[in-house]
């Protein structure tokens, strides 16, 4: 596959970047307001599916033939993004838990088509048929209503990492990434990966992901923090992290980000790097012991959908980290991927990337 015209991308080994998270099949469809009303949904919202939403997915598949399937979930989005930017199938390996159902097959097909090397754990709970996680992305005009059902994604177990094939995938990887959402599912697996990365001098990267993670799963996040080489997040997540974990007497984002970069770290040979996006405001880079840097954000003429912008930023950044590029170039790569993503519906991209770090600012 051709690499970017504008960069000298070297060929990376298969499975260089290893992602673990909550796999969701995104089912994207344009729907009328009446459809939203029938399920009591707001036109711009993100919720977890409840009893009232039974049958919603089936109704989408039946009544809206123009629906599309995208391999979703935060970490899987980031892995797809890195693969797209690098134009190197199988450079990213991804695992998470799925059910034994048609959604699993649809998800597997969509993720494989995106070039991911997959090692899904299949939830074989015979008593209750646990379905593959889904997220209905209901588009109405410029609004997006998300209805997520984590399903099998909630059932990942650490023994999946004991499988000899998966052990080998861990051995082959150089960069590990999980979004904050996975701390709610299997923190033991996160710690196993942290320890492997530490012992083998590999990179462990993670994400604050949502304000509720720092509030309700902050202890799990703090247990991993000494192993974190690269931490991603946005301004509202940083504020929540400070409120519930750091408890500094400040609301200054830069001060908080600097303090996070300087939290105790196991591998002192490598300084922790913290990258915080703020929508269209400048992206903040903090490296432990260094001065804060800021990077202006390039805004497209038209924004279609900001859903997935954070995930795609991470994917672009990790791709350039894998290529041993500078932090500045990795931030531009992340910003470029987010820039392309927000001009599309759902977490998707144009056919081919067209990125030149020298020109994209």
Question: What do these coordinates show?
Answer:
Residues 38-350 form the Carbohydrate kinase PfkB domain. Pfam families: PfkB. Its EC number is 2.7.1.20. The protein has 361 residues and is of the alpha/beta class. The chain has a single domain (17-23, 72-130, 151-342), classed as Ribokinase (UDP-N-acetylmuramoyl-L-alanine:D-glutamate ligase). Helix content is 34%, strand content 20%. The protein contains twelve helices and 16 strands. It has helices spanning 33-38, 56-63, 74-86, 102-113, 164-172, 187-199, 211-216, 218-224, 235-246, 253-261, 309-322, 327-341, and strands at 17-20, 24-30, 45-48, 68-72, 92-95, 97-98, 117-118, 121-122, 134-140, 143-149, 175-178, 203-207, 230-234, 273-278, 281-287, 293-295. The strands form three sheets. It has a nine-stranded mixed sheet. It has a five-stranded mixed sheet with strand order 3-10-9-2-4. A two-stranded parallel ribbon has the order 6-8. Helix 6 (187-199) links the parallel strand 11 and strand 12. Helix 3 packs across helix 11 (309-322) and helix 6 packs parallel to helix 8. The longest helix is centred in the last third of the chain and has 15 residues, at 327-341. The two termini are 27 Å apart. Residues 1-7 have low confidence and may be disordered.
């Amino acid at each position: 596959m051709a690499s970017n015209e504008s960069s000298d991308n070297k060929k990376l080994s298969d499975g260089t970047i290893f992602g673990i998270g909550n796999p969701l099949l995104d089912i994207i469809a344009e729907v009328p307001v009446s459809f939203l009303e029938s399920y009591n949904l707001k036109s711009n919202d993100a919720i977890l599916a409840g009893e009232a939403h039974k049958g919603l997915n089936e109704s989408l598949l039946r009544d809206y033939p123009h629906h599309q399937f995208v391999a979703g979930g935060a970490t899987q989005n980031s892995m797809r993004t890195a693969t797209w930017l690098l134009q190197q199938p199988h450079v990213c390996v991804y695992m998470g838990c799925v059910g034994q159902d048609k959604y699993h097959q649809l998800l597997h097909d969509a993720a494989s088509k995106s070039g991911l090397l997959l090692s899904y754990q299949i939830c074989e709970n015979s008593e209750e048929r646990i379905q593959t996680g889904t997220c209905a992305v209901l588009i109405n005009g410029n609004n997006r209503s998300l209805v997520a059902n984590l399903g099998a994604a909630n059932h990942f177990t650490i023994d999946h990492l004991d499988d000899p094939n998966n052990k080998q995938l861990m051995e082959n990887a150089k960069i590990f990434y999980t979004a904050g959402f996975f701390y709610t599912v299997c923190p033991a697996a996160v710690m196993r990966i942290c320890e492997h990365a530490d012992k083998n001098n590999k990179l462990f990267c993670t994400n604050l992901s949502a304000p509720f993670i720092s509030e309700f799963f902050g202890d799990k996040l703090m247990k991993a923090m000494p192993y974190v080489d690269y931490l991603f997040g946005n301004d509202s997540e940083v504020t929540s992290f400070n409120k519930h974990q750091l408890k500094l007497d400040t609301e200054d984002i830069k001060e908080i980000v600097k303090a996070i970069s300087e939290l105790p770290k196991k591998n002192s040979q490598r300084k922790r790097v913290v990258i915080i996006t703020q929508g269209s405001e400048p992206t903040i880079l903090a490296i432990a012991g260094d001065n804060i840097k800021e990077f202006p954000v390039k805004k497209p003429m038209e924004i279609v959908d900001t859903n997935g912008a954070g995930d795609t930023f991470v994917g672009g950044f990790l791709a350039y980290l894998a290529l041993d590029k500078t932090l500045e170039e990795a931030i531009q790569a992340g910003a470029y991927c987010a820039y392309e993503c927000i001009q599309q519906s759902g977490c998707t991209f144009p056919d081919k990337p067209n990125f030149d770090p020298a020109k994209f600012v």
